[in-house]
Amino acid sequence: MNEIKAKRATLKQKAIHEGQEFLGISLYLAFFFCAVVTYSTVLLGKFHVSYFGYGSALINALVIAKVILIGEYARLGKRHESRPLALSALYKAFLFTLLVLAFHVVEEMIKQLVHGDTIGSAFHEIRLDILICRSLVIFCTFIPLFAFRELQRVLGEEHFRSLLFRTGAMSKSNAD
Q1: Please, what sign has the CA dihedral across residues 90, 169, 13, 30?
Q2: Contact 128/113 with Cβ under 8 angstroms?
Q3: How many CA atoms lie within 13 A of 2 on its CB side?
Q4: What is the CA 163 to chain-centroid distance, rounded?
Q5: Could you give the CA distance from residue 82 to residue 153 in angstroms, rounded to a whole number?
Q6: What is the C-alpha to C-alpha distance for residues 94 and 162, in angstroms, rounded to an integer?
Q7: How far apart are CA 140 and CA 133, in angstroms?
Q8: Model confidence pLDDT, tens digit, residues 9-54
Q9: Phi and psi (nearest 5°) for 156?
Q10: Smallest Cα–Cα separation from 69: which of 34, 20, 108, 33?
Q11: In contact, 32 and 16? CB cutoff 8 Å
């Protein structure tokens, strides 16, 4: 009986941790994606506020955050964690950008197939220029994300959060 309670407690802790990771990544991505929507709106001279762009940005942030967690669960990029943090972060940013690109291609294919296209014509209808531009934005967004995640991995989650969010954290660590 105690063993079952312990497993439930462990599963609950994992679910809470996973939820916190998902929320943190989603908020980070939503910030950048909404900034891109705002920039595009101003650049194109659209002065009426369209919430559709922001809604799409938030949904994309949630989907891409889940793709990142799936990629991490599949241990994507683990082999390069012994390299310097900058290289490991760049490698993971690139690798996860390719993963997101693959998900976007599959998503676009499914959209075209739902609209009655054949696989060949669905692939032909995909706008690669738009997907490549999206991937560039995502790659640039992923670089600091994975730099922080690599730093967190090396320092340990508690120490990393302490350095970022607690007042006087640096003076405490220097006193040790």
Answers
A1: negative
A2: no
A3: 0
A4: 22
A5: 11
A6: 28
A7: 11
A8: 788 888 898 999 999 999 999 999 999 988 888 887 766 667 788 8
A9: 95, 145
A10: 20
A11: no
Q: Which amino acid is at 129?
A: D
| Total residues belonging to the chain | 176
Calpha distance 70→158 (Å, rounded): 23
Q: What is the pTM of this model?
A: 0.79
How wide is the angle at C-alpha 33 spanned by C-alphas 83 and 130, nearest 5°? Answer: 90
Tokens found for residue 102? 């693959």
Q: Where are the alpha helices (DSSP H) in the chain?
A: 2-43, 51-73, 85-114, 119-125, 128-155, 157-165, 169-175
